Amino acid sequence: MESKTVPRPAGRPLTVEETGKTAETTRHARVAWYRRGRWPAGRLLALLVLVAAALFFLIPVVWVLFATTKTDHAIEAQAPLSFGSFAQIAHTWDNLYSFEHGAILLWMRNSAIYSASGVLLALLVGIPAGYALAVTQFLGRKTMLTVTLVVMLVPANALVLPLFLGMSDVHLIGNAFSVILPFGFFPFGVYLAYIYFGSTIPADLLAAARVDGCSEWATFRRVALPLSLPVVGLVAFFNFVANWNNFFLPFVMLPATNQFPSSVGLEGLLAASPAFNPSAGVDISVLRPEVALAIVITVAPVLIVFMFAQRLLVRGLLAGATKE
User: Fold this and answer.
1) Does residue 197 lie within any of the structural domains?
2) Per-residue b/e over 200-236, b at no fewer than 16 CB within 10 Å?
3) CATH at residue 191
4) Which of 166, 199, 178, 180 is nearest to 243 (CA)?
């Protein structure tokens, strides 16, 4: 049976219950008016800010992609975001490959070797170190954790000079290990592993493994490590990106052109292009389309790794955020 509202007789004062209902109705009406009148404007402003930020970062990327499809003259004559032709991409690649007899492929191979070796070394050292700091007690543990945090906050470029002096003392300047060994030093990965093992792996599970007779190393290898794939993927990705994009360290440590990674090789490519370095002379093989194509080729491995590792990245970033 539907309830009917009985109208209040004229002149009768409101009861306490009716006064409360009227105040609540008025409050809801004011909230609804506020949302209708104010929130859409705030959301519209937030949307405009997000769109402006997206365009600010997206337009240069799209311009670089379209620049590979046009000639150097067409880049200036045509619209900035216009498409050229696929045949021009092949011609641009031929010009880029002719620069120092395919140096772009050599630089990409060097980057892959340096980055992959640094990732492997960072995982072999960083994951066990993070586990040890998180679940074991030993003399100097807090000091090591403090040092790890301090070094993590130091800019990487500030460490290049002491690293150069140290590598010079052991005669490794010009050797691939002068880049690989510093790449393997990744305190941020140690800290990520420390947070993961300290907040995600149940302590009772590790204690049960120790009761069953496992040593600390066996507990880490058989119990903790199989459960830590998200943080392993997270550390590997961040270390790979840092290694691949590192410019200053290889630039200082590796004097030979055939040892350059792609980050340093791009600088040499820009220096040889008259569009970016007027004192370089006339080199018709290195123009703006060739530089744009080299940039796309250099960035592509990072994007490919991200596409295949994004599930592990999400799991690693959310690890420890919630407890079951």
Assistant:
1) yes
2) bbeeeebeebeeeebeeeebbeebbeeebebbbbbbb
3) 1.10.3720.10
4) 180
Report percent pLDDT > 90 for the chain. 33
Per the document, the length of the chain is: 324
Tell me if 9 is assigned to some domain: no
313/231 Cα distance (integer angstroms): 8
Residue 35 in any domain: the answer is: no
pLDDT in tens, 247-261: 999 999 998 888 999
Handedness of CA 270, 274, 275, 276 (dihedral sign): positive
Instruction: Count up the domains in the chain and report the number.
Output: 1
Q: What does residue 154 show for φ and ψ, rounded to 5 degrees?
A: -75, 130
| Main-chain dihedrals φ then ψ at residue 174, nearest 5 degrees | 90, 0
pLDDT for residue 7: 53
In a domain, 77, yes or no: no
Range of the domain at 122: 98-318
Per-residue pLDDT band at 324 (split at 50, 70, 90): very low
Residue 156 has pLDDT above 50, yes or no: yes
